Amino acid sequence: MAPSAEELLRRNTVGINKETVSNVASTDFPGHFPGEDHAFSIERFRSAFSVQFHRNELNDASFSLIGIDASLANAFRRILIAEIPTLAIEDVYIENNTSVIQDEVLAHRLGLIPFNGGRDGIHNFLKWYKKPEAGEDPYANSFDWNTVRLELNVTCTVNPDAAPNENDPLKAYNHAHVYAKDIVFVPTGRQVEYFSGDNAIVPVNPDILIAKLRPKQTINLAMHMHKGIGADHSKFSPVATASYRLLPLIHITKPIIGADAEKFQRCFPQGVIGLEKVTREEASKSGSGYEGHAGEYKAVVKDSMKDTVSREALRHPEFEGKVKLGRRRDHFIFSIESTGQWDSDELFLEAVKHLKLKCKKLEQQVINMVQ
Amino acid sequence: MPGRTKAQADASSQDADMQDVPPSGQDEINQDAEMRENAEAEEEEEEEEVEPQRLPGSTDTAASFEFTDEGHTLGNALRYVIMKNPDVEFCAYSIPHPSEPKMNIRIQTYDGTAVNALKKGLSDLQDVCDVVAEEFWTKRQQFNSEQGIDR
Q1: Is B123 at the interface with chain A, CB within 8 A?
Q2: ipTM score of the complex?
Q3: Which ranges of B12-51 would DSSP assign to H, the alpha helix?
Q4: Which of A187, A226, A234, B93 could bridge across to B75 with cysteines, CB 3.0–4.6 Å?
Q5: Which of B73, B127, B149 minimises the CB distance to A75?
Q6: In this structure, what CATH number is given to the domain that contains residue B142?
């Protein structure tokens, strides 16, 4: 006994009402609807699942996952944020810092700067770093395959060429501002093979302001970068944002015509609602609600994906009972903005791979547990 | 009764009543001292990763499992696929305390053992990942060639 298309749409829609939300939980489990088979089958999942790309740039990708449950989509999102490794500054060895910015604040600022470099080197050559135990040599575990050394050595001086009454510190002094581009990468050991030329380790954005100096002030320090994950510290998170939203649905149940249609259009972001002329055919059909309105404008849904689901339309009495808002339960519009160390689309694939690997390891351990 | 890890076997060889045991299935810290005396056991402990543990009070068809270093990411996804198994009567997950890196999954079955339901859940989840990755890559290639993105 297969449910009707109407019933399937109802199950697939999260209702967004004036003051409440309804039909929130998934119901696609065996035994929930008598006589229906909801058992997991990979063939059924494969035929129902699809991906649609909206945008695919290095630092910004957007795509839809359709036909997947929130628990799985959310697992991918969470892995993107917290479990994909990146390289970031972890230790700062301050030789001299006479700037007004304190050592610990400076170290924190440095840690948050995103870096990029040869992908093969970052993803494959560099491995995890293990912190030495207390009392051990602090550099005991530092090797070319787990530690990247950076240096920053800047001193501010008076610019002799500047006009005597120059007020702009950037012109009056040299190095009044310390930027991310002032950080120097020092390759060690085999890093030369992986990180030379275009593959050098450099800040993603060279113009990040680190500190401001005045003449005779100095910052002289060395930094060690290690691999880490976002769960430990958000500086290791490979994404600026990784989020999804459900596809908005707008269902106009009764005609909205004339001045009302224009007002209705203004209740939504631009491009969501379009205005079309009522055709002679529609107007001649009795019971359609368009009788005698031929040539007037009616509101139609043009692109519900652009909607923000502000519920503004539900606040006006003239639209009461004429429109239903909702969201599609199994249509996730993902948006991934990478911080630069990975490509955004590559990141999602990495998240899927990560979840699979996790399950594979645990499955083997469960098999061992039974024996 | 399916055995637990070898390290635990010498601490308590039999399943105890739920009331008599600490709420966690993992070794207590004070057992470390005992372990150090036994060089062999220590070696084994180092080689093995921490496995999901069957919690005390479990039977074959109704068991709780404790996962170390897992959270909502795996917990909710695994709960969903296990619930999709028609042999499963009940499945839920919880994180008993936010400052302990532990996640518990409870499985009760109509048919078959809870361990098998867990195993099937983990393998189904891997299949899902394969399908998602494959479809994602095909659509990505398609989109890139349509848009002239060369990467």
Answers
A1: yes
A2: 0.92
A3: 31-37, 39-47
A4: B93
A5: B73
A6: 3.30.1360.10
Residue B65 domain-assigned (yes or no): yes
What are the residues whose beta carbons fall under 8 Å from the beta carbon of A79, sequence distance 6 or more?
A351, A354, A355, B73
What does the pLDDT look like over B57-88, one tens digit per residue?
999 999 999 999 999 999 999 999 999 999 99
What is the spatial distance between Cα B14 and Cα A61, in angstroms, rounded to a whole number? 53
Residue by residue, DSSP assigns A21-41 as: EE--S---STTSSTT------
Classify residue B1: in a domain, yes or no.
no
Domain that holds residue B53: 6-147
Sequence-ordered list of residues with C-beta below 8 angstroms from that of A43, at least 6 positions apart, any chain: none
Between CA A179 and CA A196 the distance in angstroms is: 22
Residue A271: count of CB within 10 angstroms of its CB: 12
Query: Is residue B143 one of the residues assigned to a domain?
Result: yes
B115/A366 CB distance under 8 A: yes
Domains of chain A: residue spans and CATH: 42-84+242-250+331-371 (3.30.1360.10), 86-237 (2.170.120.12), 254-321 (3.30.1360.10)
* Residue (of B120, B95, B116) closest to B105 by Cα position: B95
Give the count of domains, chain B.
1
Q: Which chain A residues are closer than 8 Å to B122 by Cβ? A: 359-360, 362-363, 366
Q: pTM for this structure?
A: 0.88
